[in-house]
Structures are given as structure tokens and as C-alpha cells.
Specification:
The complex is a heterodimer. Chain A is mostly helical. Chain A has twelve helices and two strands. Helices cover about 70% and strands about 0% of the residues of chain A. In chain A, strands 1-2 form a two-stranded antiparallel sheet. The radius of gyration of chain A is 25 Å and the shape is globular. Chain A starts with 11 loop residues before the first helix and ends with a helix. By secondary structure, chain B is mainly α. In chain B, helix 3 runs parallel beside helix 6, helix 6 packs across helix 12 and helix 7 packs across helix 8. Chain B is flat and about 75 Å long. The two termini of chain B are about 50 Å apart. Classes of the chains: A mainly alpha, B mainly alpha. The interface between A and B is large, with 108 and 101 residues.
Chain lengths: ~325, ~280
């Protein structure tokens, strides 16, 4: 049975049984096991604390300082000045920066549009791979290719195909007579976001499709046979039987993809570099941090991104859990 | 009866048409990169749908660049080390989380899940400071360390799922014989965990091989770059004259091993990806 990615004991009865047996064997063995368990966990926990916990704490701290990249040690505490401050009757800080809000809007737009498209096409591809035909394994392997290609490489491949003068896509569209003049896919402010979405959708459909396919393969076969015998249309079967049953798997795919999309960086960095029409929160934060060397301000942007993602995760898990609770 | 047959035939045709569309969509960009990489620069700006020449000039050019070859070496070194560390720490941790019931286990699982959802940018400045303090800036060690942030949670999560599925009689016999947890782990579980470790190792390798943000930020000189950064930074005479031939050749060189891995291990990869998300 599919569940959310949250932690659940798959076999509580087995563990309970083990506890009962452990109890019979005396608590000495049990104590030894628990001690060993913590000892085994320690290296991993220390590593995570070093690469994730401590850096996160420092980033939040930096966001309240005027630290610069060349010298983070002599940073001075400046309170909320990086976020919002009033001086001489004018508000300053990241929350008043229009390009930050553009980045927030771009990130949300990119995430919602690309994840929606990925889910729709992912489900279609999964249904296709679930059908029985010769060479299914080969098709499945082919579908996996975009997932395996490094994001940077796929961005470069598409940048070449979307090249305004020599790109195959413009060539194709002109040959078909759909456009008269070549489109500047990655440079035109109205098109560049769609170019980015196109590449991201191409790259991540396989991931969604595989998750959905795994759920599809666990569905009972008999109700489909019954539906076919009764002559119910396949579309009706899909919306009334399949879709409700694969919803938990879809929720998992959406949360994974959404979290990935909200922190998007590399596709955009390569495809449209620093263009403001595709600048996302990650690009904005890194630009402040590395290019402008302003660690304090950049950390404030990073912290806000972290808070937004944490908020969305919590809300999503809460809603998802309730939905799943009804299912159970 | 005839109508029924016709409907069946029609459905078959639609199915195969869709399959061909999906195959074309999935493969074409890579196929086009391969075609481009074999074109001499004089033919580069003529659009062709088929392989028209087999010129190896682009490959010769990119492989004669010392920094690109170094980048391949760096990427291999970093990805292999990351996989080794993630598996070593992941197997011991997953034994604790999968086989032993103790207070705080759920909290540890939640921490791991939380870290796997971290936006990388959120730790960038703090991690930069840690890496500089350890003197690992512009050094493969810095990337190996930082890559554990996304490989380790994933590895632990999937291995824990696998560990739970193993029958508990295995362990009981060992406990009866008075084996310590370490012996139980290395003698009883490790031999059974190889398939799962191969899967997670492969996924961790691909993730480390493809990573970009940390590699871009924590390295400075060409000799320390990884492959994705090297490709992203290939530039020509001006911003508008990118050397597309060599870029496509470099892309093909770094992608072919991954595509081959995917073809060979596609079943494992699929099971690893879905185990991380679906079974939980």
C-alpha cells in the first residue's frame, strides 16, 4: 500500500513481537542493542550536523549581520536591517527590493506551471508504460534517459536546439510555416520562462511517470476486467477508479517535484543566466552571496527561501496527511 | 464482431502512435546532441535531421583541453568518494533505524526527511564558512563533504526501507549465538544488502555526478572544476559565439556513461527511486 513519505512502521506487530522476545531474553541484550544503535547512528548524525544543521544556523545568523564574503569573521550584528529598515523616511531591505519580489513570483510561477505539466504528462506516460506491448522494457529505458542526463547538459542541449539563428526548433517551426521570423527563445523576456519550463518538464517527466507507474502496477486487475465487461468507457474508468487509487502516489510525486522546483537553480543559470525575467529565489540569493559578496543580504534571501519552502512543506504534509487519513 | 475488431485495431494504432511520440520526445534532444557533436564546424550551422558526417574534430578539441580531462577525473573521484561515504554511514544508520526499536527513532527519521528537503541555497553561506574553516575551499574534499547533504539522507532512507523487509529470524539466530550488533550487521545483513546498496550507490553516484550549485560555488580554478561546471563555463570568443560543437561533444562524453548505466540497471534504478518515495 502506498503511503506518504512520512515515517510509518510497516509491521508494528513484528516489532512488538520482537520486543516481547527481547523482554524474555532479558534487558541486557536490549540495552546493548539500543546503545549500539545510537553508536551506529552517530557518524551519520555528526555528518548531517556538520553539513546541514550548523550551516543552516550560521546562514540564519549571517542574515542578521553585515558579513561580506571575503571576511565573515568580523561580521557585525545589524538586526533586521537586511530584511527591512527605515532610514530617512525611506524603507530599505530585501522586502522592499522589487527584484526580490520578481524572483519570488518567478519561482512560484515556474513551480506551479512546471509541476502541473509534469504531473499531467507523467500520468499519461505512466499509463502508456502500464499498457501491455512488445518492447515495453526498451521503451521504459528510453523514457528514463532525460532523467539520467545531467541538468547542465540538458540545459545546453536545449539551448542549442532553441538557438535563435541556427536552432532546429525555429527551423522546424519556420518550415511548417508556424512562425515567420526566428524566435529568441532564451533572450526574449516573454519566452525565456517558457523555455526554462520546457526543459524542466522534459527532464522530470520520467521521475513522475515512474512513481505513478509503480502505483499503477499495484492496482487490482479485477475491477478493470469488470469495467471492460460492463462496457464502461476507459476515460470514465480512469477518472473514477484509477485516479482516486493513485492519488497518494501522485501526492508524493508532487511534493518531491515541488520542493525541487522551488529551489531551481542550474537549468536557469545555464539557459538564461542572469536575465531578470527568469530570476528565481535561488539565483537571486546566490548572486547576492557570491557575485556581490554580500553574505548578510544573500543569507537573508536564503533564509526567506528556506522559510517559504518549510511553510509549503508543512502545509502540504498536513493537507496530504488528512487526505490520506480518509483513504485509510 | 467486425466493429469490435476495428476498435481493437484502432486502439493498437493509437497506442503505438503515442509510444512513438513519447520515445521521440525522450530521445531526440540527446540524439541531436550526438549528431551535432560529429559535425565539423563548417557544417554546424546547417540544420540536419540525420547524421551527415563523422568528424571527430570536436572530440579531439575538447579532450585536448587539460582542464576538461581534469574535470572528468575530479568528477569521478568526488562521485566515487561520496558514494563510499554515503553507503558506509548509510548502512550502519539504516541498521539502527530499520532493526532496532528505541526512543527517538521517529525524531531521527524526521530529521533525515527534513534535511532531504533542504534547499541547497539555504546552507550556502554557512557551508562556505565551514569549508573555508576546514581549508577545503577549491579542493575536491569540500565537494565530497558538501555532497553528503543530499546523498546521505536519501541513502539512509532507502536502505532503511530495504532493511525492514528482511526477515527477523535472521537476526534472532545471531542474537541467540551471542553475536554483537556489529557482527550481526557485517556478517548477517551486509551480504543481503548488496543489491540495495548497488541501487542506492548508483543513484547517489548520478546525483553527485550531476550536481552544479555547490561545485560552482566551492571551486575557483579550472583544475578543480567538476564536469557540469566545466561544461557550463565553456565559452567562445564572445558571449554570442559559443563553440557549440565542442560543447555537444563534451555533453555526449559525460552523458554516455550515465545512459549506459541506466540501460543496464534500469530495473534497479526504478526500484530505488520508487522505494525512496512510495514505500516510505
Amino acid at each position: 500500500m502506498t503511503t506518504t513519505a512520512t515515517h510509518d512502521d510497516p509491521e508494528p506487530s513484528r516489532i512488538a513481537e520482537q520486543e516481547r522476545r527481547d523482554g524474555r531474553r532479558g534487558t541486557r541484550v536490549r540495552r546493548q542493542r539500543v546503545r549500539a544503535a545510537w553508536l551506529f547512528l552517530l557518524p551519520m548524525l555528526i555528518t548531517l550536523a556538520l553539513v546541514a544543521g550548523w550551516p543552516l544556523v550560521r546562514t540564519v545568523y549571517f542574515s542578521f549581520t553585515d558579513a561580506s564574503l571575503s571576511d565573515t569573521a568580523s561580521a557585525m550584528f545589524i538586526g533586521l536591517e537586511n530584511y527591512l529598515v527605515r532610514a530617512d523616511g525611506i524603507w530599505y531591505g530585501i522586502l522592499t527590493d522589487p527584484s526580490w519580489w520578481t524572483a519570488v513570483w518567478n519561482t512560484l510561477f515556474f513551480s506551479v506551471v512546471s509541476v502541473s505539466l509534469e504531473v499531467v504528462f507523467g500520468v499519461i506516460v505512466a499509463l502508456l508504460l502500464n499498457a501491455e506491448f512488445k518492447g515495453r522494457i526498451l521503451v521504459r529505458a528510453a523514457v528514463l534517459i532525460p532523467w539520467a542526463i545531467p541538468t547542465i547538459v540538458s540545459a545546453k542541449m536545449w539551448a542549442w536546439m532553441l538557438n535563435d539563428q541556427f536552432g532546429i526548433i525555429n527551423h522546424l517551426l519556420m518550415t511548417l510555416g508556424l512562425i515567420d521570423t526566428p524566435l529568441a527563445w532564451t533572450a526574449d523576456a516573454d519566452l525565456s520562462m517558457w523555455a526554462v519550463i520546457m526543459v524542466d518538464v522534459w527532464k522530470t517527466i520520467p521521475f513522475v511517470a515512474l512513481l505513478v507507474l509503480a502505483a499503477l502496477q499495484m492496482l487490482p486487475k479485477d475491477c478493470y476486467e469488470a469495467a471492460e465487461v460492463d462496457g464502461i468507457s476507459p476515460l470514465k474508468v480512469f477518472f473514477h477508479v484509477t485516479l482516486p487509487l493513485i492519488t497518494p502516489a501522485l501526492l508524493v510525486a508532487v511534493i518531491f517535484r515541488l520542493l525541487d522546483a522551488l529551489r531551481v537553480f542550474d537549468v536557469i543559470y545555464v539557459l538564461t543566466s542572469n536575465s531578470s525575467s527568469t530570476m528565481t529565489m535561488s539565483i537571486y540569493a546566490r548572486q547576492q552571496l557570491v557575485e556581490f559578496q554580500d553574505v548578510g543580504y544573500g543569507s537573508a534571501a536564503s533564509t526567506l527561501l528556506f522559510l517559504i519552502i518549510a511553510l509549503i512543506t508543512v502545509v502540504y504534509l498536513y493537507l496530504g496527511r488528512r487526505q490520506l487519513g480518509i483513504d485509510r | 464482431m467486425n466493429r469490435y475488431r476495428l476498435a481493437r485495431l484502432l486502439r493498437r494504432v493509437v497506442l503505438w502512435a503515442l509510444i512513438l511520440v513519447v520515445m521521440f520526445y525522450a530521445i531526440f534532444p540527446f540524439y541531436y546532441a550526438v549528431i551535432t557533436s560529429f559535425k565539423p564546424s563548417s557544417e554546424l550551422f546547417r540544420v540536419d535531421y540525420w547524421l551527415t558526417s563523422l568528424d571527430l574534430g570536436n572530440y579531439a578539441q575538447i579532450l585536448s583541453q587539460r582542464s576538461f580531462v581534469q574535470a572528468i577525473g575530479n568528477s569521478i573521484l568526488i562521485a566515487v568518494s561520496v558514494v563510499a561515504i554515503a553507503l558506509l554511514l548509510g548502512v550502519t544508520a539504516s541498521y539502527s533505524l530499520g532493526r532496532v526499536r528505541f526512543r527517538g527513532r521517529t525524531a531521527v527519521m524526521l530529521i533525515i526527511l527534513g534535511v532531504s528537503m533542504f534547499p541547497q541555497v539555504a546552507v550556502l553561506s554557512g557551508l562556505f564558512e565551514v569549508i573555508r574553516a576546514l581549508d577545503l575551499y577549491n579542493h575536491p574534499g569540500g565537494l565530497i563533504l558538501s555532497y553528503t547533504i543530499f546523498t546521505l539522507p536519501f541513502t539512509v532512507w532507502v536502505l532503511t526501507t530495504f532493511m525492514r523487509q528482511l526477515p527477523m529470524e535472521l537476526e534472532e539466530a545471531a542474537i541467540m549465538d551471542g553475536a554483537t550488533p556489529w557482527v550481526t550487521l557485517t556478517r548477517v545483513f551486509l551480504p543481503l544488502m548488496w543489491p540495495a546498496m548497488a541501487t542506492t550507490g548508483l543513484l547517489a553516484f548520478i546525483a553527485a555526478w550531476n550536481e552544479f550549485l555547490f561545485a560552482l560555488t566551492f571551486t575557483l580554478t579550472d583544475s578543480q572544476r567538476t564536469v557540469p561546471v566545466a561544461i557550463a563555463l565553456i565559452s567562445g570568443g564572445s558571449q554570442h559565439e559559443l563553440p557549440w560543437g565542442p560543447i555537444m561533444a563534451a555533453s555526449v562524453i559525460v552523458t554516455v556513461p550515465l545512459v549506459v548505466l541506466v540501460m543496464i540497471f534500469q530495473k534497479r534504478i526504478v526500484s530505488g527511486l520508487t522505494a525512496g518515495a512510495v514505500k516510505g
